[in-house]
Amino acid sequence: MDIADWEKRYTEAVSNVQEQLLNVQGVFVAYNSNVDAMKHIREDEIKKLIGILGCERVHERIALYPREIKDPVDLMARLIIAMRDGKAAEVPTYSNDIHEWLMDNLVFDSARMGGQAGIISNLLANLGVKNVITYVPWLSREQAEYFADSPYLRHPVMENGKLVLKHPKEAFDPQQKPKINWIIEFLRGMKFSCAGEEYEVPRDNRLIVSSRPDWIHIDMAAEMYEHLSDIRESIDGAILAGYQMIKEEYQDGSTYKDYVQRAVNVIQRLKGCNPQMRIHVEFTSIQNKVIRKAILTDIVKKHVTSLGLDTVEVANALNVLGYEELAYSVINKGENSIVSLYEGAVRLLRELELQRVHIHSLGYYICVVSKDHPLDADAHRQALLFSSALAATQASLGSIKSLDDVSAGLAVPVYGQGHDDLIELERYLVRRGVCTAEDFEDGCISADGHDLIIIPSKVVKEPVATVGIGDAISAGAFVALLAKMPKMNICRMPE
Ligand code: ADP
Question: Do 272 and 229 form a contact (C-beta atoms < 8 A)?
Answer without folding.
Answer: yes
